[in-house]
């Protein structure tokens, strides 16, 4: 179990994973060494999986960001998910419940590039339907 201090540490790291331990220590009222130990423990327990840089796709020329729902043959779910994950423009791939069995975040340069990527995914054996939703603006 984690306590309120661990929750505060996670909140700080979620907002900026590069926050120095000395700054976190000041905010939560513990020593830098105590913060270091707590973070190491949370990493060992798998609570903190990894640290990542959040990239702005538009600054890299990706102007068409799409959330893609993919419906597939149920017996091929894992196989197709892994094939989609190997496509470089598929930045995130999730197996899900709800309207679609697989959800993927696709980064494309423009509409033509998106069409090419969707065609590539649609040709994977076992894919039944693609349901793209183009992101207009990210709020959070």
A few lines on this structure:
With 140 residues, the protein is of the alpha+beta class. It has helices at residues 4-15, 21-28, 32-44, 77-85, 111-122; strands spanning 64-72, 90-95, 102-108, 127-134.
Task: Please provide a written account of the structure.
The protein is of the alpha+beta class and 140 residues long. It folds into 2 domains: 4-44, Arc Repressor Mutant, subunit A, CATH 1.10.10.10; 57-134, Alpha-Beta Plaits (2-Layer Sandwich), CATH 3.30.70. Helix content is 39%, strand content 21%. The chain contains 5 helices and 4 strands. A 4-stranded antiparallel β-sheet has the order 2-3-1-4, with helices on one face. Strand 2 and strand 3 (102-108) form a beta hairpin. Helix 2 (21-28) packs across helix 3 (32-44). The radius of gyration is 20 Å and the shape is elongated. The mean pLDDT is 96.
Number of helices: 5
The average pLDDT score comes to: 96
**CATH homologous superfamily designation of the largest domain:** Lrp/AsnC effector binding domain/regulation of amino acid metabolism (RAM) domain
Rg: 20 Å
Number of domains: 2
What is the CATH architecture annotation of the largest domain? 2-Layer Sandwich
Report the biggest beta sheet as strand number plus sense, adding barrel if it closes: 4 strands, antiparallel
| The level-1 CATH class of the largest domain | Alpha Beta
Query: Remind me, CATH topology of the largest domain?
Result: Alpha-Beta Plaits
**Percentage of residues in DSSP E strands:** 15-25%
* Strands ordered across the widest β-sheet: 2-3-1-4
């Amino acid at each position: 179990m984690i306590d309120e201090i661990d929750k505060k540490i996670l909140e700080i790291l979620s907002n900026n994973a590069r926050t120095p331990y000395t700054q976190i220590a000041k905010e939560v009222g513990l020593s830098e060494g105590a913060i270091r130990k707590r973070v190491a423990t949370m990493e060992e327990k798998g609570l903190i999986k990894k640290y990542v840089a959040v990239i702005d796709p538009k600054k890299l020329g990706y102007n068409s960001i799409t959330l893609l729902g993919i419906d597939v043959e149920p017996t091929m779910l894992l196989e197709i998910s892994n094939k989609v994950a190997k496509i470089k423009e598929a930045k995130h791939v999730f197996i899900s419940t709800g309207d679609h069995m697989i959800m993927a975040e696709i980064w494309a340069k423009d509409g033509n590039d998106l069409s090419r990527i969707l065609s590539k995914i649609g040709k994977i054996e076992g894919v039944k339907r693609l349901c793209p939703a183009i992101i207009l603006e990210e709020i959070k």
